[in-house]
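TA notes, week 10

Several of you asked for a full example with nothing omitted. So below is the full record: structure tokens for the whole chain, then the designed sequence directly under it. When grading your own attempts, check the secondary structure regions first.
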């Protein structure tokens, strides 16, 4: 108690726990031999007949044949030359007695573990349980990966619906607009044909009438005398020229009418071309949207397959974790 004014300290029950370090030797071969004889109190030995590239770690413990002392390695060392001269190791305490060379039967044996057999069994089960718990977190990560893949697939599916809707909406979709533009283009072509028909009607078309008027004018012009003559001939000629001139004016008006009809037909054809171009653009846009929808379908299918594989992997691993945890729980009981 930190209160120094008390003459008699209060009684208290105290539980003291000591954490004892344990050793687990990693050597593949636990038994070897002494290569060179070690003197009493020596703290190094040349050992051999273990496995090259194995590591003797600081803290590893070993016995020497004929000795009662348990020796502890002080410095880690990587083994080599194990089939010939061996490798020196450092340890404490010093040798209690001479350690003869191998030819005199001086073996060296490392302890696999400082735990008692019952403690080793508990440790094995504890490590197995913690391994399963550790593995389970990685499997949860796999589940998260699977749900992320499903989210990506759902997004792709949503985009598919939007693209199909864009193409197929009843009045505003690309297909509907393309069809409407096709109708307008066809109507414009009909109007152009009507204008053409006005021009070429067999008996009343302006080009036919203009031709007839020009023929009449030409006939009258041809009868006008080239030279002078009697007064009555001159009067008749003037009359014929006037009539011919009238026919020419009439023919000119018919030609102007035909020209106007041609202009109207050309305008209608340009309108038809514009509408058809617009229709084609809408059709191409609809095709592009359907193509994009197809791409999204493929992406969604791929994402769904990936999500399914992730889900199957996660389910399999969780089953494995469950079975291992059951084994571990049974052992810890």
């Amino acid at each position: 108690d930190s209160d120094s004014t008390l003459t008699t300290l209060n009684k208290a029950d105290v539980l003291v726990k000591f954490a004892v370090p344990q050793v687990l030797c990693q050597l593949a071969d636990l038994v070897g031999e002494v290569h060179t004889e070690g003197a009493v109190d020596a703290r190094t030995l040349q050992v051999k007949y273990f496995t090259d590239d194995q590591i003797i770690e600081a803290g590893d413990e070993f016995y020497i044949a004929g000795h009662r002392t348990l020796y502890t390695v002080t410095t880690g060392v990587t083994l080599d030359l194990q089939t010939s001269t061996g490798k020196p190791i450092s340890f404490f305490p010093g040798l209690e007695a001479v350690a003869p060379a191998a030819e005199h039967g001086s073996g060296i044996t490392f302890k696999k573990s400082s735990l008692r057999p019952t403690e080793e069994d508990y440790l094995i089960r504890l490590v197995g349980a913690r391994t399963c718990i550790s593995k389970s977190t990685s499997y949860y990560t796999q589940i998260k990966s699977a749900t992320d893949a499903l989210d990506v697939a759902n997004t792709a599916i949503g985009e598919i619906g939007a693209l199909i809707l864009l193409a197929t909406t009843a009045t505003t979709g690309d297909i509907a607009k393309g069809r409407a533009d096709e109708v307008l283009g066809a109507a414009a072509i009909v109007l152009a044909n009507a204008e053409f028909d006005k021009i070429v009607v067999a008996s009343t078309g302006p080009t036919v009438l203009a031709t007839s008027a020009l023929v009449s004018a030409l006939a009258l012009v041809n009868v006008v005398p080239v030279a002078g003559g009697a007064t009555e001939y001159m009067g008749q000629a003037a009359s014929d020229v006037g009539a011919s001139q009238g026919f020419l004016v009439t023919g000119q008006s018919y030609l102007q009418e035909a020209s106007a009809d041609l202009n109207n037909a050309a305008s209608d054809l340009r309108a038809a071309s514009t509408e058809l171009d617009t229709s084609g653009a809408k059709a191409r846009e609809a095709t592009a949207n359907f193509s994009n929808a197809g791409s999204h379908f493929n992406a969604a299918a791929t994402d769904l397959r990936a999500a399914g594989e992730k889900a199957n992997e996660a389910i399999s691993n969780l089953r494995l974790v469950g079975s291992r945890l059951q084994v571990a729980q049974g052992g810890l009981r």
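The beta strands are 31-36, 44-48, 55-56, 61-64, 71-73, 77-78, 87-92, 107-110. Use that as a sanity check on your answer.
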